Amino acid sequence: MASRAQKTSAAVKPKGHASCNGATKASRPASAGSASAGGPALSTDQLLELYRAMLRVRILDDRMITLQRQGRIGFYGACTGQEAATLGSAYALEPTDWIFPALREASAMLLRGFPLVPYLAQVFGNSADVTKGRQMPSHQAARAVNQVSWSSCIGTQLPQAVGAAMAARLKRDRTVFMAYMGDGATSASDFHVALNFAGVFKAPVVFVCQNNHWSISMRTDQQTASESIAIKAKAYGFPGVKVDGNDVEAVYAAAKTAVDRARRGEGPTLIEAETYRMGAHSTSDDPTRYRDPKEVELWKTRDPLDRLQARLLKLKVWDARRDEALRTELLGEINAAIKEAESYGPPADETMFEDLYAEVPWNILEQREEYLEYLRRAGPAARGDHA
Amino acid sequence: MPTLNLVQAVNDALRVEMRRNPDVVVMGEDVGKFGGVFRATAGLYEEFGPERVIDTPLAESGIIGTAIGMAMYGLRPVPEIQFSDFIFPAFDQIVNELAKLRYRSGGQYAAPVVIRTPYGGGIKGGHYHSQSPEALFIHTAGLKVVSPSNPYDAKGLLLAAMRQDDPVLFFEPKRIYRAARGEVPEGDYTVELGRAKVVREGDDVTVIAWGAMLHEAERAVEQAAEKGISCELIDLRTLWPLDIDCITESARKTGRVVVVHEAARTCGLGAEICALIQERCFVHLEAPIKRVTGWDTPFPYTLENEYLPRAPRILMGIDEVAAFEA
After folding, report:
1. Radius of gyration for the alpha carbons in chain A, expressed in angstroms and rounded
2. Does residue A213 have an active-site annotation?
3. Helix or strand or coil: residue B172?
4. Which of A129, A361, B25, B79 could cross-link A122 (Cys pair, CB 3.0–4.6 Å)?
């Protein structure tokens, strides 16, 4: 099991430097039924819970891609192939901890109890969406589960997570902050800025880089000449851990170690979860133009869901019959939720002018009136396609 | 009542609010032990300690990015950008994150960050210690933009900014940090955001200015008065959302308007003010609205006084507008 979490910043560990201890610990994750010691392990029930959560996201993403192809939603960024990295890391958090997501971590909200219908309403951008249809699909956010709103700008959430972490420490709260990014984000200036600030201020933040090998059409070796992403943490003075991102137990162990460390006030960790983007970057691109299908085939054999299923079968806590029943149940739940979520109309006209400031300034009041007057006068011609 | 200069008034406002509200933190480059390159945060580190007066690494996007996170979590961060010329590494954080956070989250998250930054020319600062980038932020929905011209307003506006719930760009006219002196009440008071001030009433020409240029405009208006031109001088104070009623009322009265600003003319705030006045006061106008501004060039080092719209050029603008006959 020790090989699950791969080489860590130990590779660049200077003699006698104590700050690598966290990395060393995280490199030896244990798992259910494993004899190996030194890392947090998941119980059988927890593995079953994660399997259910991962399968739910897999089915959900498949359905959303279909809906997009049918023209029922405008865009989708799936997490397919990355369910272990996303959910295994988020599983290490307490409900009071905060998540600063990137494109492929919206489903952490579901793991943390956010209901499916409003979650899907965001994809439809309609009146049941708590963010009022203002952003593209796959940009869910909900204060109720401490999942912060992401823009679409790469890496900008990272310094924000550090600031929130600094604030929590100032307020003597024990909140931990998990900030996600893809491998492409490690090229952005805010990556450097965030890790540098986090190191200087010892902020209780866990950076999780989902290295899925592709940033749209760009390979990771086109993003960085570094031997790994985890190793970069060394330069900022805190541990970096590279972990098999398709092994949910390894991801959890690394994340839990990092979260505990942050909560103890020992500062940040960078986790590089090596995984693979099985689908396109989003519904807007065609990956066959830039990557070898053989690579995809290879990663299919490392599928995180298949691996967890195999593990559960081996533990004899799962079988084909239960698996089939669960798939049927989840598909039914998701289809029912889609039906309900899709039934809501677009956000009310005047909501376009809400939530800009705490109080509405005169120009917005005027423009709201102008718009409502336009709707009254132009009638159906004023409406977009969604009406 | 003590007499303070503008930077002392800023310092006083920060101290008053930090004493009143433990969630207020000051952060930026050299703001801690050193007290800021202009001394705006002097003494705060000693009184409030390193946790609330935070010396940050040298990265503007980090300063604003972390301030956004702090504000989301419930603090009231007041980051300083050492010179507004250096705000651009944080432009993405301000324009795409700070300004849009409340809106894009459907009102679930807000970030009441007050960004203080010295701006403007006339201190031999060349291209990169002289710019006036206010219009770039006014163009972005979701931000408020403030610029005081005197110590009383600086303190009152900054206190008001730190107590409301939206992000504010607080542009401090560094050229008059020490030159602008005046009586400033001790302790607590606020100057409401969104309200301009009629500094001087007049009937013939409305002159609108803010920040350091208010004082140049004041000189021009005095000289115009000697020539028999009665000017109404408006100190805008809050650049956005601006006091539309004050502007239109004066424009309707005089029918002749001059707008003064240091920033380059094209797409400057003056352009917006001209548009707003012609939309609302068209039948009252008796002359084209005149913009007396910085030129559409980068801010030059040697010829800075020729770049700035100083009193003689403003006076020429007033003369031109006053003399116009259709």
Report:
1. 22
2. no
3. strand
4. A129
HSE-up of residue B135 (Cα within 13 Å, Cβ side): 17
Q: Is A193 on the interface with B (CB under 8 A)?
A: yes
Q: Is A376 exposed, middle or buried (0-12, 13-18, 19+ CB in 10 A)?
A: exposed
Name the residue in chain B with its Cα closest to that of A158.
Answer: B65
Rounded Cα distance, A14 and A200, in Å: 19
Q: Which residues of B touch A159 (CB under 8 A)?
A: 61-62, 64-66, 68-69, 93
Query: Would you call A127 an interface residue with chain B, using a CB distance cutoff of 8 Å?
Result: no
The helix (H) or strand (E) run that includes residue A208 is strand A205-211
Residues counted in chain A: 387
At A1 the pLDDT is 35
For chains A and B, CB pairs below 8 A equal: 147
Average pLDDT value for residue range B1-12: 97
pLDDT at B231: 98
Mean pLDDT value of segment B199-215: 98
Distances B33 to B8, B36, B52, B55, B199 between C-alpha atoms, Å: 17, 8, 12, 8, 38
Closest CB to A153: pick one of B52, B77, B96.
Answer: B96
Give how far A349 is from chain B: nearest CA, Å.
14
Residues B257 and B291: their CA atoms lie apart, in Å, by: 9
- What pLDDT, on the 0 to 100 scale, is given for residue B280? 98
Residue pair A140/A147 in contact (Cβ under 8 Å)? The answer is yes
For chain B, domain boundaries: 3-183, 197-323
pLDDT in tens, A336-352: 999 999 999 999 999 99
8 Å CB contact of B65 and A162:
yes
CA of A168 vs chain B CAs: smallest distance (Å):
7
Is the ipTM higher than 0.85? The answer is yes
- Distance CA(B115)–CA(A251), nearest Å, equals 39
The predicted structure's pLDDT at residue A386: 54
> Which whole number is the average pLDDT over B30-43?
97
Percent of chain A with pLDDT over 70: 89
Q: CATH code for B3-183?
A: 3.40.50.970
Alpha helices in B167-310 (DSSP H): 213-226, 244-254, 269-281, 304-307
Q: How far is B262 from chain A (nearest CA, A)?
A: 24
Calculate the average pLDDT of chain A: 90
Task: Check CB contact under 8 Å for A190 and B165.
Answer: no
- B241 chain-A contacts, CB cut-off 8 A: 361-363
- Concerning whether A277 is annotated as a catalytic residue, the answer is yes
The average pLDDT across B127-135 equals 97
Instruction: Identify whether the C-beta of residue B274 lies closer than 8 Å to the C-beta of residue B297.
Output: no
With an 8 Å Cβ cutoff, is A151 touching chain B?
yes
Q: Which two tokens stand for residue B300?
A: 């030059």
Same fold, B3-183 and B197-323: yes
Q: Which of the four pLDDT bands, split at 50, 70 and 90, describes residue A374?
A: very high
Q: How far apart are CA B113 and CA B77, in angstroms?
A: 5
Distance CA B235, CA A167 (A): 37
**E strand spans, chain B:** 3-5, 24-28, 53-55, 76-80, 114-119, 144-146, 168-173, 181-183, 197-200, 205-209, 231-235, 238-240, 257-264, 290-294
SS3 B249: helix
A137, A125 contact by CB (below 8 A): yes
Cβ–Cβ gap A159/B108 under 8 Å: no
Q: Which among A22, A18, A15, A46 is positioned nearest to A33, based on CA atoms? A: A46
Mutate to test the interface with B, among A156, A193, A362 (most CBs of B within 10 A): A193
Domain B197-323 class? alpha beta
Q: How far apart are the first and last CA of chain A?
A: 55
- Smallest Cα–Cα separation from A107: which of A258, A266, A305? A305
